[in-house]
Amino acid sequence: MPEPNYAVELSPPDIEPYRSGNTGFDYVTTFDSGFAGPHVLVTALTHGNEICGAIALDRLFRAGLWPRQGKLTLAFDNIAAYRSFDPRVPTTSRFVDEDFNRLWAPATLDGPRQSTELARARALRPIVDAAHFLLDIHSMQYSTAPLMLAGTLDGSVALARRVGIPELIMCDAGHAAGPRMRDYGGFGDPASSKTALLIESGQHWERRAAEMATDVMLRFLIALGTLTRDDAQLLAGPDFDAHPRQRIIQVTEAVTITGDHFEFAQDFRGLEVLSPKGTLIGRDNGREVRTPYDDCVLIMPSRRLAKGQTAVRLGRFLS
Ligand SMILES: [Zn+2]
């Protein structure tokens, strides 16, 4: 199937000014209001080629905004992968050795295995441990509507509704290949008050993704009382005042690749609604994978079709 060739409309910002930071961790900066309030963490470059998050954080730094309460920490995650970003081959810098966002299980973080991403995840772990709220900024391979990934906890869905954009909120348990940062520790624990969101801002290279990333970040910080609306107005983009009717997609399962060769039956891009039940999705080493129910929504079909990885997630609209 032909791969879409998206123009690279975004330029990776220079983040060297943020290397030294003030936390003792490279590329991690904490602003302390001096007043009581939550510790809010916003992260970018969990995947090194998803540059819209770096653009959003760069804008926030440059605006010189200071939290009104609590603390605000801004972190750039997979710096090694980001450094290898090349707009001529923009898909190759997602990670160096492995996916940074599949390592967030204590057994993995505490285990003996070594990789570029594990070293960085271990370094950042105390930062993630210290945060009450997390927004992790991502983008997607295909150009589809932005998605807020709210995990499985009610508190995360409630926060996604308070943020108010984007239109689509996805409730999901992540990937068989390993837990994401947004599911780590208290962020995945219903008994904890910690809450995390992950925004898929749009296609990796489109200007729109940087606008969405920025507006979601601002509205996340307003919702938590870190910034006021007046503070944030300075950086507002086209969705700053948007109030779409938000809809929830409940993910029911992930199609995890079990064979050496997986192919999709059609050139799926994501958010297709397939009916009836039993529609062919793809073939995993020849084994047919079909939709388990009517009106099945395909979520973020992958272009990296490797054994053990998620090919696509399946869900249904709840509202
Ligand atoms: Zn990502």
Give a description of the structure.
It is built from 7 helices and 14 strands. The chain has 319 residues and is an alpha/beta fold. The strands form 2 sheets. The protein has an 11-stranded mixed β-sheet with strand order 1-3-2-4-7-5-6-8-14-13-10, with helices on both faces. Strand 2, helix 1 (52-63) and strand 3 (71-76) form a beta-alpha-beta unit. The structure holds zinc ion.
Which terms summarize this structure?
alpha/beta, three-stranded antiparallel β-sheet, eleven-stranded mixed β-sheet, binds zinc ion, 319 residues, 7 helices, globular
Order of helices and strands: EEHEHHHEEHEEHHEEEEEEE
What level of helicity do the residues show? 10-25%
How far do the termini sit from each other?
A: 33 Å
Tally of individual helices: 7
Biggest sheet overview: 11 strands, mixed
Uncertain runs with pLDDT below 50, 5 residues or more?
none
Query: What hetero molecules are bound to the protein chains?
Result: zinc ion
- Round the Cα radius of gyration to an integer and report it: 19 Å
Mean pLDDT: 95
Overall SS class: alpha/beta
Strand share of the residues?
15-25%
Categorize the overall geometry: globular
What is the number of beta strands? 14
Main β-sheet, spatial strand arrangement: 1-3-2-4-7-5-6-8-14-13-10
How would you concisely characterize the structure shown here?
The chain has helices at residues 52-63, 79-83, 106-109, 116-130, 154-163, 207-223, 229-233, and strands spanning 28-32, 39-44, 71-76, 133-140, 147-149, 168-171, 195-203, 247-256, 262-264, 273-274, 280-284, 287-290, 296-299, 310-317.
